[in-house]
Amino acid sequence: MIRELLRLGPAQRDHLPAGRIALGVAVPLLTLLWWGRLDLSIYASFAAFTGIYARHEPLGTRLRHQSTSAALLLACEALGIWLAQTGTGPWGVTLAGALVSGVGAVLAAALGLRPAGSLFFVFAVTSIAGLSRPAPFGEALGVAAATAVFCLGLGVLGALLSERVRPDELQPPSPSPLDEAGLSWHSLRHVLAAGLGGAAGLLSPFGHSAWAMVAAVAPISAQDHRGRVQRGLHRIVGTLGGVGVAAVVLALPPSPWLLVGLIVVLQFLAEVFVTRNYSVSLLFVTPLALLMTQLTQPGDPAALLTARAAETVLGALIGLAVVVLVRSGAERRDG
Prior knowledge:
Residues 199-322 form the Integral membrane bound transporter domain. By secondary structure, this protein is an all-alpha fold. The protein has 14 helices and no strands.
């Protein structure tokens, strides 16, 4: 386990999908910055997660899976906007996030989406629902939809380029190994992890329960029990290291242009390492998430750093407890 924290997996020309994904973030954010509407940046950022899916799949399956992912992300954003505009309280948001976690995990597994699990869906719903001043529904969802379409276009161009230059890099998606019973346990783990993580986050004094929910869900998507435990440990170690990186980044002058530039660079670096070493990628994901928070709703950097570290450790420990305790008889025998 300790060696896995330090080992880098083999490179797969990761800079190509990383560049495409970073471009999918850069163009919408720079457009909003030029437009003077950075208040809409959070909606564009979550829609840009469309580009993360199907990163090495051929054109046909990539377009199908990214279109499906875009639709699910937009639905999660729409739900989050509605929850924010109707004044749903934090416990209601936690319940919604837990239900989205379970449903999203089953849909992702049944439809063969990669990355697996419901982390991005939970992150989108809970973060947007927690906004104190949500944007008008039409503006927010319009920006999100335009971003998703742009990322779909980049995905098509990336697949066409890879088919011409390096067709050996494209891989068909692996089928989900989960049967009906496996899907039920998979969904139950996601619901419990998100719900308990959110409840613990609300009872803590730090005020960012969405981060605890995401950290709790993060380990569940791995393929087997050992992988889930390993991912939970990576989440803790990588986030704590990322908080140190974020402390340096947040000490820089708070220029909007600089923040957007750093977000794009961090997104690129996170995608370069995410398939090679999860904990290393979190060195960049953590400051990326904090910069996005500062871009939308600026706050005290020291408080943000403390909350990020505490909520992530709390959520990841809950996720690990769910991984260890919530297993079917077959999973226990295999383990």
